[in-house]
What does this fold into?
Amino acid sequence: MITGLSAVVLLWSFFQAPVTCGAPVRGRDDGCRNNATGLLMGCHIRQHRWQKLKMLILR
Ligand SMILES: [Zn+2]
It folds into this structure.
């Protein structure tokens, strides 16, 4: 039960949680500040999503 619940929380934070985009932006230390839904999803700039995925894969 606990693992099922934490999996749901994990999925929610990946795809639904209100977060800042945080994609790396040239010339800025703190990255993109736009609102995004989910840690994996990035903001309305579609390229940011791919930048974040690329960062995850490279790490
Ligand atoms: Zn962004």
